[in-house]
Amino acid sequence: MIRLNIGSHNVRQDGFLNVDILDLPNVDIVCDITKVPWLVKGVAPQEKFEDDSVDEILMVEVLEHLSFHDTIKVLREIHRVLIPGGKLHIQVPDCGSMMEMYVRGEISDSIPHKPESVEQVLQLRKLTGARVHPRRWLMAFCGAQKYGVPDIHKNIFTKESMQEYLEEAGFEKIDFKEDPLGWKIKVNVFK
Description:
9 strands, Rossmann fold, alpha/beta, 26% helix, 7-stranded mixed sheet
């Protein structure tokens, strides 16, 4: 079974091979996923991933770091390498929800930037009417910018745009998961 954690940075995910553009500790495969077909460096140098060869892919807080020009190309490459029935899990900032919060005036530092729990935020929302901290809101659009260029957002997503991208890439089984805070789009996609 081949399971990839794309955009892993140096964080290990049990049962997954870590894939990142940066050659960091804990990265198993160094790969620029915008260059297709994907070449495997680190496992089998200069060989491409075969069609229908990957069982599962995690892309948590990754897709927004790619140019909007590359989004479809990368999603099509994922569709190519996933086995039939293979799973793709994507998580990106929910910029549609963030825009709605802006329009409704729900951005306030009364919500912690790094909350202790979902419950803490939900409780504070009841008390203040605020939904998101200003820095968390800004980071949804611009990225955290902690690591330089790789940590800048080059695309934004709404649930509608994510659905369109995935369908255009060839995916049909698309299952959005609710984020209780409305800060993230979480979606499981099956080939």
